[in-house]
UniProtKB/TrEMBL annotation:
<keyword id="KW-0949">S-adenosyl-L-methionine</keyword>
<dbReference type="GO" id="GO:0070677">
    <property type="term" value="F:rRNA (cytosine-2'-O-)-methyltransferase activity"/>
</dbReference>
<feature type="domain" description="Tetrapyrrole methylase">
    <location>
        <begin position="12"/>
        <end position="215"/>
    </location>
</feature>
<dbReference type="Pfam" id="PF23016">
    <property type="entry name" value="RsmI_C"/>
</dbReference>
<dbReference type="Pfam" id="PF00590">
    <property type="entry name" value="TP_methylase"/>
</dbReference>
<dbReference type="InterPro" id="IPR000878">
    <property type="entry name" value="4pyrrol_Mease"/>
</dbReference>
<dbReference type="InterPro" id="IPR035996">
    <property type="entry name" value="4pyrrol_Methylase_sf"/>
</dbReference>
<comment type="function">
    <text>Catalyzes the 2'-O-methylation of the ribose of cytidine 1402 (C1402) in 16S rRNA.</text>
</comment>
<comment type="similarity">
    <text>Belongs to the methyltransferase superfamily. RsmI family.</text>
</comment>
<dbReference type="InterPro" id="IPR053910">
    <property type="entry name" value="RsmI_HTH"/>
</dbReference>
<keyword id="KW-0963">Cytoplasm</keyword>
<dbReference type="InterPro" id="IPR014777">
    <property type="entry name" value="4pyrrole_Mease_sub1"/>
</dbReference>
<keyword id="KW-0698">rRNA processing</keyword>
<dbReference type="InterPro" id="IPR014776">
    <property type="entry name" value="4pyrrole_Mease_sub2"/>
</dbReference>
<dbReference type="GO" id="GO:0005737">
    <property type="term" value="C:cytoplasm"/>
</dbReference>
<dbReference type="InterPro" id="IPR008189">
    <property type="entry name" value="rRNA_ssu_MeTfrase_I"/>
</dbReference>
<keyword id="KW-0808">Transferase</keyword>
Amino acid sequence: MKQHESSLPPGLTLVATPIGNARDITLRALDVLSSADVLAAEDTRSLRKLLEIHGISLGGRPVLAYHEHNGAKMRPQILAAMAEGKSVAYASEAGTPMISDPGFDLARAATEAGHPVTSAPGAAAVVTALTLAGLPTDRFLFAGFLPNQQSARRRTLEELAGVPATLVFYESPRRLAAMLRDAEAALGAERQGAVARELTKKFEEVRRGSLGELAEFYENSAARGEVVVLIDRGRLENVSGSDVTRALEEALQTMSVRDAADYVAQMLGVKKRPVYQEAMMLAKELRE
């Protein structure tokens, strides 16, 4: 058998893989998967199927499983390969490595050992859902999976209630209805949201509405497949003048008057004109 020859430099390349449609892979990702000396994957079966679909031969290269249950055991082996001057490609099961994925420890260990780490970017369910949800995208908070236990889940949602950013969660279809009821209780029935399901696949669906409407729908209609839940940004209540002043003083250290006013007004959910007027006065005082 012909010896594999790598065109990749030594080190670790994190490879994003499709979240559904196998054609949503980048040309660069295919190049990396074709060229790396060693392939590692959260799910080797998924990676082998992807390679087969795109006609990539292993050529005798090792395919190593790296997941949350064997990371401590496999990291030394993968780091040893890099120390020998080999190139390693790590692929998530679906989407971008490090986004609800066990590759974090591997990338950190490679960096600490002095090996180059780079990324071949691509699909990510969180970004795909944001583009389709119809909610603000200028600022968002990805919170991964919420706790399984209801009390802990509600407590986490309550802590996020005032965050001035669109909230994004991954969720199990089995827990979706319960999670939406908890979100309704913690954030309010009228707060807007969206449920994105089976993104890029045949039965892709994005359902939008209030949290109350979404909770009622999914209590009566079982969801299937991968689910992303998005919730509109919070609005802080009872914002005081001192809250605005403190926020402006901090923002003006790195921003122009206009940018600081825009930022603070949006962050605190207040009218922009009085914030802009105060920002001009504060900026004048800082100059004097």
